[in-house]
Each structure stands twice: as structure tokens, then as C-alpha cells.
Amino acid sequence: MKGYKVILISLFSVCTLSGQMHEIGIVVGGSNTIAEVGNTRFINPNSQVIGIIYKWNKTTRYSYRASILSTNLSSSDAQSGNPARIRRNYSFQNQLLELSAGIEVNFFDYNLLKDDSAITPYFYSGLNLLIHKPPLSVITPSTTVEELGVSIPLIIGIKTRISPSIALGVETGIRYSSTDNIDGVNDINTSPFVKIDNVYNNDWYVFTSLTLSYTFGQLPCYCN
User: Fold this and answer.
1) Do the domain assignments include residue 3?
2) Would you say residue 66 lies in a domain?
3) Which domain holds residue 135?
4) Cα dist. 175→42, 151, 178 in Å?
5) Model confidence over 39-81: pLDDT tens digits?
6) What is the 3-state secondary structure (H, E, C) of 172-214?
7) CATH of the domain at 187
8) Which of 2, 4, 39, 59 is the most buried (most CB within 10 A)?
9) What is the pTM of this model?
């Protein structure tokens, strides 16, 4: 009898681990930077973000997630609210493509089998690959060169099912990048005639967005 119990427990465990539900959707929102040029507010969307997102919901508490997002990061000292930056009057644009992969963790159970609408806050982190074109200099912003980099996302959001197959989410998250050249100031940091603050801090950027996704695939088996 004990052997049968072990077999039944093993079957339930396999059911929980192998169940899955896929989501694919679109992302739209805004972006901003936290760098040596422009506004220093953490959440201040001023450029459009658009992309696609994929999730593999392994359990009610976590999902594997990947996304491809594109934006034209931009900022201007004239809109910073900082008198020193306003007098300096630098600005920049940076075309950025972000490829991200990581794990999304739900604060509450997000059960896709229930008939009622599930809702939960969540946290996401992982690793991003950046392909971007910072200006060679904020002094000559029209000249660009493509660079590769990485960033670490720290994202919080809330999501809900609005129908059996459609989910809606709202999120915002900072990305700490491996570069201090998103704003194009690297080449003038050593100049004694140009004042650039925080030259020893890498640049950050922020995405604030909506996600609308469609669920499909094998129904997850949450055998509680």
C-alpha cells in the first residue's frame, strides 16, 4: 500500500511540474533615462516603447518570461528643472533594442484554471541584452555608433485576466545598465571645460508600460 501512495504522490508532482500555459502579447508604453543629461525623475515617460512579450506559466506563482522591446531614449537638460543643467542645455537621442529573459514571480496565486478573473501583483528580474546607438557626443548628437551592452531589470507590476484567454498588465521598472554612455557623455568626461555630474555612475533607464497577452497551449495542472 505504501508503494501505491508513493506512486500517486509522484504522479501529482509530475502533473504540477509539467503543466503549462503560454502567453504571447504586445507591450506599449513610455521610456525615460536617469543619466548625466536631462531630467532626473525616476518615472518620467517621454518616449514611446513598443514590443512583444512571451511567458511560460510553470506554476501559479512563477513564470519564465522573454521580451523584445524597442524605444528611442531621449532627454533634454532644458526639461530637467535643474538650473545648472538648464544653463548647460545638452540633449540626446539613443535608439535602443532590449532583449530580455528572466523569471516573473507572483505575489499571490495566479490560477489560469479558475473561472473568475485572477489578479496579482508581481516582480520580474533577469538579464537584458542591449543594442543601442548612443551619440558619439552630446556636442555632436547627430553622429551615432552602435554599441552592445547589458542591463539588469527590476520590475514591479500588476496583472489580471479580463477573459479566459486575455490578460492585461501594468508595470514599471528600472534597468541598471553596464554603460555610462547611453547619453553620449563618455568622450567629454575628462574635459576640464565641461561640467558633467555623476560621471562615476552607470546610466539607468525606465520603462512604464501596458501588456496585453493571449494565453494558449496545454492547460496547467495545478494539483493542489
Assistant:
1) no
2) yes
3) 20-216
4) 11, 6, 10
5) 878 899 999 999 999 999 988 899 999 999 999 999 888 888 8
6) EEEEEECCCCCCCCHHHCCCCCCCCCCCCCCCEEEEEEEEEEE
7) 2.40.160.20
8) 39
9) 0.80
- 3-state SS string over 62-107? EEEEEEEEEEEEEEEHHHCCCHHHHHHCCEEEEEEEEEEEEEEEEC
State how far the alpha carbon of 65 is from the alpha carbons of 29, 43, 169, in Å. 18, 23, 14
Cell numbers representing residue 127 in the block: 538579464
Q: Grid cell 508600460 — which residue?
A: 209
At residue 146 the predicted structure's pLDDT band, cuts being 50, 70 and 90, is confident
C-alpha cell at 196: 558633467
Task: Look at residue 171 and tell me if it is in a domain.
Answer: yes
Q: How confident is the model at residue 190 (pLDDT cuts 50, 70, 90)?
A: very low
In angstroms, rounded to a whole number, what is the distance separating the alpha carbons of residues 199 and 218?
A: 50
Residues with Cβ within 8 Å of 140's Cβ and at least 6 positions away in sequence, in order, are none
Distance CA 47, CA 31 (A): 5
Range 71-96 burial, b when 16+ CB lie within 10 A, else e = bebbbbbeebeeeebeebebbbbbeb
The answer to whether residue 8 sits within a structural domain is no
| Amino acid letter, 51 | G
Number of domain units in the chain: 1
